[in-house]
Amino acid sequence: MKKDRNIFVLDTSAILTFIEVEEGTEEIEGLLIKAEKGEINIFVVFISLLEVFYITMQEKGEDEALRRVKLIQSLPVQVVESNEAFTLKAGSLKATNRMSLADAYIASVALELSGTLVHKDPEFENLKPPVEETRLPYKK
C-alpha cells in the first residue's frame, strides 16, 4: 500500500515529547503548524489519550492528566476511535510482533491509513509488515 504523504499518526511517545518539550519537539511543532494550515492531517489514536492520561496521573496527578488530555484535544489533530478494520489489523500485528497492545493498535491505524507513524519507540523498528515512520530522537 502506498503511503499518503499528507497523513501522520502520532504515537504516545511523540505526544509526550511535544507536551514535555523533549528532543524532537520542533518536529512535532512543525507538523502541527502544517496541520493548522490544512496541508497535512494528523491522527491520534484513542489509546494514546488513555496512555497520556494514566502515565501523567501516575507521575503528576489527575489534574495534570486531565489538562494534558484537553491540550491534545485542542490541537489540530483528529482522534481515531476503534473500528473493526483497525482492531483486526492490531490483532494481527500483536500476534506476529513483540509489542504492546497499544503500540499494535497505533501501528494498525498508521498502516490502514497509509500514513507515517511518528514516534520514539524502539518497538516499531522491526515491525512486520513495516510501517512508514519518522523516528524522533530516542531518550538516552
Could you walk me through the main structural features you see in this protein, from its secondary elements to its overall organization?
The structure is a single chain. The protein has 140 residues and is of the alpha/beta class. The chain has a single domain (7-134), classed as 5'-nuclease (Rossmann fold, 3-Layer(aba) Sandwich). It contains 6 helices and 5 strands. The chain has helices at 12-19, 25-36, 46-60, 62-74, 84-96, 101-112; strands at 7-10, 41-45, 78-80, 116-119, 133-135. It has a 5-stranded parallel sheet, with helices on both faces.
| Main sheet summary | 5 strands, parallel
- Overall spatial form: globular
CATH class: Alpha Beta
Please, what is the average pLDDT?
95
CATH superfamily: 5'-nuclease
User: CATH topology, which one?
Assistant: Rossmann fold
In total, the number of strands is 5
List the strand order in the largest sheet: 3-2-1-4-5
| Total count of domains | 1
Low-confidence stretches: none
| Beta fraction | 5-15%
The assigned structural class equals alpha/beta
Compressed to H and E, one letter per element, the order equals: EHHEHHEHHEE
**CATH architecture call:** 3-Layer(aba) Sandwich
Which percent range fits the helix content?
40-55%
What is the count of helical runs?
A: 6
Radius of gyration: 14 Å
Head-to-tail CA distance between termini: 34 Å
Labels describing this entry:
140 residues, 52% helix, Rossmann fold, alpha/beta, 14% strand, five-stranded parallel beta sheet
